[in-house]
Design a protein that fits this description.
The complex is a heterodimer of chains A (390) and B (117). Chain A has 390 residues and is an alpha/beta fold. Chain A contains 15 helices and 14 strands. In chain A, the strands form two sheets. In chain A, strands 3-4-2-1-5-6-7-8 form an eight-stranded mixed β-sheet, sandwiched between helices. Chain A has a six-stranded parallel β-sheet with strand order 11-10-9-12-13-14, sandwiched between helices. Chain B is 21% helix and 9% strand. Classes of the chains: A alpha/beta (390), B alpha+beta (117).
Chain lengths: 390, 117
Amino acid sequence: MSHGPLRHRAAYVAFDRFPSSKGSAVHIAQMADELFTRFGGGLLAAIGGGDLPRYQREGTREVARFDASIPNLIDRAEAFSGWVAAHLRPHWETLEVCHVRDPWSALPAVADGRRHTVVYEVNGLPSIEMSHTWPWAAPATLGKIRELERFCLERSDAVVVPSRVIGEAVRGLGVPEGRIHLVPNGADVGDRPERPAGAPERYLVYVGALQPWQGLDVLMRAFARLADLPGLRLVVCASVPERRAKPVRRLAERLGVAGRVDWRFALPHHEVAAWLAHAEVSVAPLTGCARNLDQGCAPLKVIESMAAGVPVVASDLPAVRELMADGRHGRLVPADRPAELARAVRILLEYPEEAAAMGRRGRAHIEESLTWARSRARLAEVYRTLTRGR
Amino acid sequence: MNRCTVTTGFFVLGRCGQAAVAACPQCGRPVCAAHAGPNALCPECAAAQGYRTQDPHHPGWTHGYRRDYYRGSSQTYNDGYWYSSFDEYDRGAFNPGDDYSHGGDWGPDDDTGFVDS
């Protein structure tokens, strides 16, 4: 093990906690691992806090975590950018590729006088997404964030997007077609895990975070329409802390379904896989909002559900259509329509053989075209193209 | 017997757990032979040495600050524009709020990421 200060050729920067139980952490792990494999190690700079150590060193890999508790998001982002700059500085002479995930990480990476190339991975655009998470942000404020995004994207050497819809949104911000690379999300297809302890006999599963665009409210309303099905429960594997569930829980109580909903919070990834594998149906009720339609998304839960061999009932959005086919891997239903969602679930429950066949086809589809190995090979190709001739 | 408490792993974290041979002189944690660096520093403290301290009250901070100031910042991140364009009014919308503000309910166990799939 090397003991002196390391000088890295690659860095991956994310304004996101790592590791965590969110889909984004799975994505970061895969992408950063590919980058560090290509460049003989590297620095991962991410958000920490809690029990996570501020620094970690594993052979030629380093993890540095920003853990300042700054409640205001913009203040925090500003402090993070400064922290990233300080952590890139020791590597400024040796750095060849800096892979970033958001404008706050990108700003210090695209600074003048750099020798490295910048790969900007766009999973979402804060200028669109923040209008949902921060409804009081003025359009003028979001406009400033859009300009910041545009500035960082313009100065990046390559933009990686997980879906065509996001690619389109990035193109709309003025990034030339030739600089945009599609690297879809993936999943690993493994053995069927053991049934989780305490799993109900028959259950629908929802996996993911609880922001309003996830459509948990639509799912709860749909579930209320399935009250006549004896013993059917809904398991929500939330990737966020319990207190975030308050609004959805209140709604579940109002709808009279709270007693049939089981909650699990911030489960490790392998446990989520077990809950998926034994569910009757996995539901991805994404709403038809600007975040999902204009910005686009690449819901990992859809891919991971298919990898687990479970039929999926999801909202019929362009970003979801890129991943699964209606009637083949599950059902696509109009977004924000609880009755339609309930009906699709009910039909799958009534035709278990057809549902199982959909699950099998979904799994085969992932094996054929959406594994992490494939995504990583595509990312490696982007790095190769960029660093060629350097 | 003391066990090495160094955090290991990348996506799934754990503790090393090997028999400790020394205590890190900086943070005092027990470290095993494989994780003890020069002067028995643990990997966390050894990695931290490679980066300037972020704490202005730390004695090492002035040195790094002064060095960077004189070296000039034309080659590195020097955001004199972007963040200063966010005034109090802009920032005010991003204060953590109560349960009613989506995403505004912020605590130490929360993620700061804004993009989630």
